[in-house]
Amino acid sequence: MGTEVKNEKLKRIQSLIYELSARVSENTAKAGLHRSKVEENHFHILANTTANGVALRDLATKGLESHLAICLHELNDIETQEEEKKIHAKFATLKLLIEHLKARIEINRGLIRINQSLVEINKQMIAVNSSAAGFTDEIVLAAASTDLHHDRVMQEVLDEEYSISHEMIDELNEICDGLVETVAENTAHIEKLNSESDRNRLAIAGNNKRIHQLIDMVLEVSEYS
Fold first, then answer.
1. Which terminus, N or C, of the chain has the lesser number of Cβ atoms within 10 Å?
2. What SS3 state is found at 47?
3. Structural domains in the chain (count)
């Protein structure tokens, strides 16, 4: 009778382990999909950042600097016999040049802020790489310990003759129940991360639209010059 009860308990544990294995595999697939989403988002963020930087640079060079050249040319070629008109024209041109300088200074400040943000992103990515390497070490050690545990258990089965008690089976069952909770937490966490990545993708798309509007404005300024 005791043997039948033990077998029933072990069957229940075996069934639970199969179910857990399937859910763990599903979580692994979900985590892989999420990683792809994150990498895609990272690519689009970098593309947006690059496009934004290029647009600001072009605005400073193709737009404002070409305007500056026009103003300097006009400043040197003011044709009028009336001194007051000449002074007025020079004053207006110099005032415009000052506005150009202020705009270019602001552009440079913007470029510096963008570069600083990129430096911070690089620091964060370095930290992520370091953490990922640490996680990889833990995973490798976990896999190795599983192999060692398997060898040890199999050797115990061969070397020792002892009876498996109900308490030992119940303890194994409790471990499985704990794993069920852990797997459920992992599933919830992965799904949350997926949702956050989807929201990030929408935000990235919004930024992409704004940056393309900026690029169009830069092109208009460049054509005007």
1. N
2. helix
3. 1
